[in-house]
Amino acid sequence: GEDVEQSLFLSVREGDSSVINCTYTDSSSTYLYWYKQEPGAGLQLLTYIFSNMDMKQDQRLTVLLNKKDKHLSLRIADTQTGDSAIYFCAERLNSGNTPLVFGKGTRLSVIA
Amino acid sequence: NAGVTQTPKFQVLKTGQSMTLQCAQDMNHNSMYWYRQDPGMGLRLIYYSASEGTTDKGEVPNGYNVSRLNKREFSLRLESAAPSQTSVYFCASSVGQGRAEAFFGQGTRLTVV
Questions:
Q1: In this complex, which of A41, A42, A103 lies closest to B42 when CB atoms are compared?
Q2: Residues of A in contact with B31 (CB under 8 A)
Q3: Which chain B residues touch A88 with a CB distance below 8 Å?
Q4: Which residues of A touch B105 (CB under 8 A)?
Q5: Which residues, other chains included, contact B71 with Cβ-Cβ below 8 Å and sequence gap of 6+?
Q6: How confident is the model at residue A1 (pLDDT cuts 50, 70, 90)?
Q7: pLDDT exceeds cutoff 60 at B35
Q8: H/E element holding B103?
Q9: Chain segment B57-94, per-residue pLDDT in tens
């Protein structure tokens, strides 16, 4: 069965890099996603990576995928107070119309 | 574009009352989903509709029913609300093929007393 694991909390100082980790169990995942949830709001897609890629960079965000270890990470460079939020890792299995499976979310706190 | 719109945003129910949460998307998406979010539990799938005319159970369907009214709308009904259904409910939609990321509504905060 599918399961997505994340650590629940991360605290970093403003200007440092943040690394949020995620492990998943299903090797048939096609896409993996990172979502951000700000207080009182819905989830917004931050970035995604296709399962045949190792790395994807998008401005301050770097996603690394290790398929052998089923490990996904999100690195936020030069973390700002506006980055404080909950970050969810999600995987999609097989076809595009199957639901996303989410981790429990990592609450990132940025200390000024 | 409004994206995914949920109504209401807040609701308080008494135990045993019924209500329907409404969701509509204007992106011509094929697939729609209902999740609930509870502290420390992440998002758990209640029901989904892979395409118009189909619905399937997710991880936590007990106590809920859904209707895919048309391609745009997907409603979630609580027939007899229980305190355990106090949660934040999110509707989402996706194109249903390819990369198919999910787009989320702003959520409905439901309290059952």
A1: A103
A2: 96-97, 99
A3: 42-43
A4: 42
A5: B28, B29, B30, B52
A6: very low
A7: yes
A8: strand B103-104
A9: 999 999 999 999 899 999 999 999 999 999 999 999 99
User: Which percentage of chain A shows pLDDT scores above 70?
Assistant: 95
> Looking at residue B73, what DSSP letter applies?
B
* Cβ–Cβ < 8 Å for A65, A51: yes
Q: How far apart are the C-alpha atoms of A47 and A32, rounded to whole Å?
A: 9
The answer to whether residue B97 scores a pLDDT higher than 90 is no
Choose among A33, A92, A97: nearest Cβ to B50. A97
Q: What are phi and psi of A71, to 5 degrees?
A: -125, 130
CA distance B20 to B44: 19
| Closest by Cα among B87, B107, B104 to B12 | B87
Nearest to A17 by CA among A91, A90, A73: A73
pLDDT, chain A, mean = 91
Question: Would the CB atoms of A45 and B101 count as touching at under 8 Å?
Answer: yes
pLDDT tens track for A14-63 = 999 999 999 988 777 778 999 999 998 999 999 999 888 999 999 999 99
Please tell me which residue of chain B has the smallest CA distance to A91: B101
The count of other CB atoms within 10 Å of the CB of residue A60 is 14
The pair of structure tokens assigned to B111 is 């309290």
pLDDT at A2 over 60: no
